[in-house]
Design a protein that fits this description.
about 300 residues; UDP-N-acetylmuramoyl-L-alanine:D-glutamate ligase; 9-stranded mixed β-sheet; 4-stranded mixed β-sheet; globular
């Protein structure tokens, strides 16, 4: 892999998804015929980086996986989509993470059960060069290592983005370094113990976050900043597969930041990327082109 520091670094979990399509979500203690199945690489950060690379930027992934059957799928995927990585990180002695993803064909919704692989340790990131990195993307896992890398990157002038799907042990510590956070509305209740999205956003802004984006699927996304808030409605699409939509949304956010889009343009572009992804199966071949995402954004 190249020694050049790319515009985007991403640190997080990577798994291989076994994606199963069912006519509808099954009831407990029943047997159900599978419509189709497939294997794909998943994880919030690698999928976001795949979107970043599809849009024309350079990215490097920092994660761990083993040299087993699933691990070789991950290595091939990163190479295929032009995502840089350190080959030494791809040879951990543990087990490669994996996930079972059940997709309801009638709605496009998904349910996931996962087993994470080896965590990234502090020693794994000590010597990583961040000079020249413009954006560091995190998923909240590998807490101490993520905090160390984020501290270095922020000191060098990088923007720190986090996909906070759910609270994790180091979430509060990492948020003190984060500039842009994307999270579902449920994050407010789970992390702060409050039901109000507005109150949760105020807490995040007070802690130093520049922009907090709350995504609500088909109900769009609401972004909060110190100078107010704005809402971007979801683009109307017929959803086939929503798995990975939030990850793709983050990839769109990162692209908007790199292009110095306005906050509204950034969230609208991210929403366009996620909407187009939902119209096809998978989280790689469904990634939209820059032309397609830009056209929908400006429609």
């Amino acid at each position: 892999m190249s020694d050049d520091v790319p515009e985007v670094l991403g640190l997080g979990m990577v798994v291989v998804d076994h994606q199963v399509v069912l006519p509808s979500f099954p009831s407990i203690d029943t047997k159900n015929q599978i419509e189709s199945d497939r294997y794909q690489v998943g994880g919030p950060v690698p999928t976001a980086l795949a979107m970043v690379c599809k849009l024309g930027n350079k990215a490097k992934f920092i994660g761990k996986w083993s040299d087993d059957a699933f691990g070789r799928i991950i290595t091939a995927d990163l190479q295929d989509y032009g995502i840089d990585f350190d080959s030494a990180m791809a040879r951990s002695q543990g087990r490669t993470g994996f996930a079972h993803v059940w997709i309801d064909q009638s709605t496009g919704s998904r349910t996931v059960a996962y087993l994470r692989g080896d965590a990234i340790e502090v020693d794994d990131v000590t010597d990583i060069d961040v000079d020249g990195c413009k954006v560091l993307h995190l998923d909240g896992w590998s807490g101490e290592a993520a905090w160390m890398l984020a501290s270095k990157a922020k000191a060098s002038g990088a923007t720190i983005v986090m996909d906070a799907g759910s609270p994790k042990p180091w979430t509060a510590t990492l948020l003190s370094l984060v500039d842009v956070v994307n999270c579902p509305k449920s994050f407010a209740t789970e992390f702060y113990g409050i039901t109000g999205e507005h109150d949760a956003a105020a807490r995040l802004i007070n802690e130093g976050v520049t922009m907090a984006v709350f995504t609500q699927g088909s109900r769009g996304a609401t972004a909060y900043r110190s100078d107010g808030k704005f809402h971007i409605p979801a683009f109307p699409v017929s959803a086939i597969d929503t798995n990975g939509a939030g990850d793709v949304f983050c990839g769109g956010l990162i692209y908007g930041l790199l292009q110095s889009y306005s906050p509204e343009e950034t969230v609208r572009f991210a929403s366009a990327c996620a909407a187009l992804k939902c119209q096809a199966m998978g989280n790689r071949e469904s990634l939209p082109s820059l032309d397609a995402a830009s056209a929908l954004m400006n429609a």
